[in-house]
Design brief:
This protein is an alpha+beta fold. It has 21 helices and twelve strands. The strands form three sheets. Strands 1-10-9-2-3-6-5-4 form an eight-stranded mixed beta sheet. A two-stranded antiparallel sheet has the order 7-8. The model has no long low-confidence stretch (mean pLDDT 86).
Length: 416
């Protein structure tokens, strides 16, 4: 068996956690992404640690309570007790498996008390490895052995993504795993096994039972990896992308866009209309702040793309954009190819030349509606609004107005 070296702080925490489980005759294992990351790159900076045990949830709660700083029980009915301990988030889950009823969006969770079954029902072999922490000799010497029943270590070495059981079984248990496969291909540089690709193509309609929130979370995680292209190839090559995001015919090259969630979503949906973009984000239950931010950047991006000649008036016509927002949108415009680096440099030079002489994003007018009503004897209503709108257009095109100049223009317009 392969020995696993844990970072000293993780080893100390695991040893402290193992003692009470050992005394109760229970087994405790470190599992999941932490084990995978240790094998890929050695000591990890992750502050989240996942464990599995044969102890039932109520017993886990009692064993953890005296040790941890805080305890969260929201996941107890699914077998998970979460805690905060020395700045880390610790989750201990009773051996379990989750299976979707074909007619339900909620998986059925069962506890069977067996590590082999628990690992076999995990999503991929690279996440189906464990390190046993209990056993006095193990935690006394910080010497642990890797439990790898499904060849996850070899798959990491070969850079292959496989499921522990047949893909049809794994994706039938939880269809979201098809989208998780996309994320792991993108984030870990793994090559999907042919049978995994075939299963996604054949079973992608099963994603309809998965909640929008879970789909959103996986897409969010995939979109912010440095280069999502390998994941995109799997997503759209299997037809899953067309099912989930029919607005996107050809996925853009997101590696050229800063890995920021708002910017990546804006670029991802740049080929869709603003209305379709809003509708898709809302359907995925994106928070209102994300929807608003994407649409704001998208609006600025569209205005940048519509400008043929960059001059001071063009910059002013970008309405309420700040200097920071303009620079962000320019970077995105270069990333998706709607303007060139030379265009961006020219615009930034123009903005820089305008700074100090005037604020290119100042939209203020020297008069307001009350001034116009008092000066020209107007009634509050559409005429006043039209005059102000025409003044703002002149302000955007020609720069700042004086009070006398603005009033003279209004007088001219009212006389015609």
């Amino acid at each position: 068996m392969t020995s696993v070296e844990l970072p000293s702080d993780v080893a100390s925490l695991c040893a402290s956690l193992a003692v009470p489980f050992d005394r109760k005759g229970r087994r405790l294992y470190l599992v999941g992404g932490t084990v995978r990351d240790l094998l890929v790159s050695g000591p990890t900076d992750s502050h989240d640690l996942d464990f599995t045990t044969d102890a039932p949830p109520e017993e886990v709660r009692a064993l953890l309570a005296p040790l941890v700083d805080d305890l969260w029980l929201q996941g107890e009915r699914f077998g998970t007790i979460a805690a905060s301990w020395h700045g880390r988030t610790v989750e201990v889950t009773t051996h379990r498996r989750e299976v979707y009823d074909p007619r339900s969006r909620q998986p059925k969770v069962t506890f069977d008390g067996d590590l082999d079954s628990d690992l076999s029902r995990r999503d991929f072999t690279v996440n189906a490895m464990a390190v046993e922490l209990t056993g006095r000799a193990a935690y006394a010497r910080h010497t642990y052995q890797l439990i790898d029943l499904f060849g996850g270590r070899d798959d990491l070495d070969r850079r292959v993504l496989r499921t522990p059981l047949e893909p049809a079984v794994a994706f039938g248990d939880d269809p979201l795993r098809m989208l998780r496969a996309v994320r792991f291909v993108a984030s870990l540089g793994l090559r999907p096994a042919p049978e995994l690709v075939d299963a996604i193509s054949a079973m992608r309609d099963r994603m309809s039972v998965v909640s929008a929130e879970r789909v959103r979370d996986e897409l969010d995680r995939m979109l912010v990896v440095p280069d999502p292209a390998p994941g995109m190839a799997l997503l759209f090559g299997t037809g899953l992308g067309a099912d989930l995001l029919p607005e996107i015919a050809t996925p853009p090259d997101l590696a050229r866009v800063e890995p920021d969630l708002v910017l990546r979503w804006t670029a991802f949906l740049a080929c869709a209309s603003p209305e379709a973009t809003r509708s898709r984000l809302v359907s995925l239950r994106q928070p209102r702040r994300v929807v608003s931010a994407v649409l704001q950047v998208r609006g600025l991006l569209d205005r940048i793309g519509s400008i043929d000649r960059w001059d001071a008036a063009a910059v002013r016509r970008l309405e309420a954009a700040s200097d920071h927002e303009l620079r962000v949108a320019l970077g995105l415009a270069v990333g998706i190819g709607s303007i060139t680096l030379r265009d961006r440099a020219a615009v930034e030079a123009l903005v820089a030349s305008m700074q100090g002489r005037e604020d290119p994003f100042d939209r203020s007018l020297p008069v307001d509606g009350s001034t116009l009503i008092g000066r020209f004897g107007l009634e509050p209503g559409p005429i006043v609004g039209e005059l102000l709108a025409r003044l703002r257009a002149v302000r955007a095109s020609d720069g700042p107005l004086t009070r006398d100049g603005a009033l003279a223009l209004c007088e001219e317009w009212l006389s015609t």
